[in-house]
Amino acid sequence: MGSDAIARPLLDWLAEAKSAAGEVVGVFTQPDRPAGRGQQVQVGAIKAWAQGRGLPVLQPAQLGEGELAQLRQWRPDVILVMAYGHILRRNFIDAPPLGTLNLHASLLPQFRGASPIQTAVACGGPSTGVTLMRIVPELDAGPVAGSEVVPILPLDTAADVEVRLAAACGPLLARTLPELAAGRLKFSEQDHARATFCRRLEKSDGALDFSAPAAALAARINGLFPWPGCSFAVNGQVVRLGLADTVAGPAAAAPGAVLGSDAAGLLVAAGGSVLRLRRLQRPGGRMLDAGEFLRGFPIAAGTVVPSQPMPPLVSTAPFPRPPRG
Question: What does CATH list as the number for 203-296?
């Protein structure tokens, strides 16, 4: 059960490791939806994978009795869930004899919720990972069978880390699925007191407050790329940011003041330190390295970029669910 392209390498691994990992008997994924500038209905990556192998695919907008009956006809030993987008009821969770397991893209109990990859990068930590857990009614709170650690490098964006997390699912399942089949896989309760939560991201999360430390701003810019993307307004135009880091030394200027540029990026004062913007995009243009961007869209030293409040991305309690509709 999966809808996001992050689950595609997992499916590739299952197909290649068929003799050891078992056989995929069916796929659940979200309905086809419009995408791109033309808003044309497109087949998702998971559906395309299944169709290419002649596997049955179900795409319910909601999971009901008909889908449960079809699932039981497939007689799976285990359900693997990754980035599916539906909340599973107990009758679905309990359908396979070996249970329903979720691959969550964080090192639980950190970053339970909807945006663990972006939030892990945006928080500036050195690593994240994939955790295999049993699904329970409480959000990402089930007992854990294992995890695979993935580094977050200094110039990684969320898109870079997502690729590594997707690749980490194979080694994790290679260790755990044979143990599950043999009845030897052990699950351990999470330390719920250490749990943190993230939420579904919104466009407004791309705001930047230049009074924050440069390292925090760089991490947020990289973590929120490509979606929702951080940006600021300059000369009446919104400039999107694709990559950032910091420069050593203090910034003797007001937060948001442009200090000039170096060979790698545009330099902006931030919280007493220096933020370096390495990749930028003007309206209607492409994301460019800073040097190329500034040749076509110069930003003079002394320009002050306005700050905006930055909505929190992490909480020690679950975020309220947004209203439907």
Answer: 3.10.25.10
